[in-house]
């Protein structure tokens, strides 16, 4: 029996679970009712999500980052992206200006109290995400969808952080993952991942909103790494092990995978684009949550994070930028 079928049966048949859901079923914002989006974290994913929402779904976006310098860097990067699109005649100058005008930035997270849908995209640190969702449950409208872009942290645990009373699903039922892929403006697929507490209305709203953003959603279960990263990150980790054990040089590894399996870039270059710290964090979750030694992170991956060689975002990873 698949996880999703099992979960549906659980929620339908177990009286305790059914009662809990009746105790606090919360109506949520439908896709068309999303009049304003909030994005927490203006890094590479948060900025991409904000930009695509402003361009494709044409919703006003409140982009929040607790680091003013990170916000400024993101806005400069956004200007460059839009200028490039205009120069290549992919969009008109008017559309670029309109998209820009829809995005407002702030360092004050309480500004998302007015949004109908919020997507969190802060670094992959469990306690940080839990504290943000605890706060969101207090400040957001009672109908707002509370989505995370986590690559690997359990959605059920994130949802649980919204309350001290596990019977209270008023916020937990609105927690879902909209797992966008990098780079957000290019990659069409978005994984929609449900926690045990997520309501079907929340899933429907998340599916509809990512479609409004021009993306192609698919669903996966709340299992370590979900689908995309359960498959992708061990592949990258294996490439790093091949490098550190001398099976091949970095160019050889990337070349054979790029030219031999028809992927747009090799695994080490891809790791640089994802962020070496993010790759390590996901491997750690896979390893710790499954206890399976096949997910042990490569030593080189750990050392690179210790050295601050985080890939493209820090100017140095497997390659120099
Ligand atoms: P990033 O490091 O580029 O950006 C994170 C941003 O969050 C930074 O600008 C940081 O200043 C900000 N931030 C930190 N604490 C904050 C707080 N308390 N409040 C507001 N802002 C805060 O990270 P990223 O690569 O954009 O990843 C974000 C999330 O998306 C992570 O959960 C990651 O696992 C996931 N993800 C990443 C990728 C990828 O390829 N990078 C792909 C899919 C999912």
TrEMBL record:
- Which residues does the annotation list for site: Important for catalytic activity? 179
**Single Gene Ontology BP annotation:** fatty acid metabolic process
Pathway per its UniProt entry is: Lipid metabolism; fatty acid beta-oxidation
Q: Please give the InterPro entries that the UniProt record associates with this protein.
A: 3-OHacyl-CoA_DH (IPR022694), 3-OHacyl-CoA_DH_CS (IPR006180), 3-OHacyl-CoA_DH_NAD-bd (IPR006176), 3HC_DH_C (IPR006108), 6-PGluconate_DH-like_C_sf (IPR008927), 6PGD_dom2 (IPR013328), NAD(P)-bd_dom_sf (IPR036291)
Q: Which PROSITE patterns match?
A: 3HCDH
Q: Care to name a GO molecular-function term for this sequence? A: NAD+ binding
* Residues reported in the UniProt entry to bind NAD(+): 41-46, 65, 124, 129, 151, 182, 313
- Which keywords does the record carry? NAD, Oxidoreductase
What family does the Swiss-Prot or TrEMBL record give for this protein? Answer: Belongs to the 3-hydroxyacyl-CoA dehydrogenase family.
Q: What is this protein called?
A: 3-hydroxybutyryl-CoA dehydrogenase
């Amino acid at each position: 029996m698949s996880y999703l079928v099992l979960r549906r049966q659980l929620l339908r048949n177990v009286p305790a679970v059914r009662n809990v859901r009746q105790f606090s079923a919360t109506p949520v914002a439908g896709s068309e009712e999303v009049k304003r989006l909030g994005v927490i974290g203006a890094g590479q994913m948060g900025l991409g999500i904000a930009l695509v929402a402003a361009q494709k779904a044409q919703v006003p976006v409140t982009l929040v980052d607790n680091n003013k310098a990170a916000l400024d860097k993101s806005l400069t990067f956004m200007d460059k992206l839009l200028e490039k699109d205009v120069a290549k005649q992919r969009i008109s100058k008017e559309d670029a200006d309109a998209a820009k005008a829809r995005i407002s930035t702030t360092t004050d997270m309480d500004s998302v109290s007015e949004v109908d849908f919020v997507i969190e995209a802060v670094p992959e640190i469990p306690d940080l995400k839990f504290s943000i969702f605890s706060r969101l449950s207090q400040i957001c409208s009672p109908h707002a969808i509370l989505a995370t872009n986590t690559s690997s942290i359990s959605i059920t645990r994130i949802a649980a952080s919204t309350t001290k009373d596990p019977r209270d699903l008023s916020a937990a039922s609105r927690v879902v993952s909209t797992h966008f892929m990098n780079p957000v403006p290019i990659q069409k697929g978005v994984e929609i991942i449900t926690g045990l507490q997520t309501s079907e209305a929340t899933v429907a709203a998340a599916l509809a909103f990512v479609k409004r953003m021009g993306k192609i959603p698919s669903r996966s279960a709340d299992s370590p790494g979900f689908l995309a990263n359960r498959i992708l990150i061990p592949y990258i980790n294996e490439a790093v092990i091949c490098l550190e054990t001398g099976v091949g040089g970095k160019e050889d590894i990337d070349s054979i995978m790029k030219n031999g399996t028809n992927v747009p870039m090799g695994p080490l270059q891809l790791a640089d684009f994802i962020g070496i710290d993010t790759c390590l964090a996901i491997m750690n979750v896979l390893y710790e949550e499954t206890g399976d030694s096949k997910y042990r992170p490569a030593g080189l991956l750990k050392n690179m994070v210790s050295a601050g060689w985080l890939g493209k975002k820090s100017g140095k990873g497997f390659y120099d930028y």
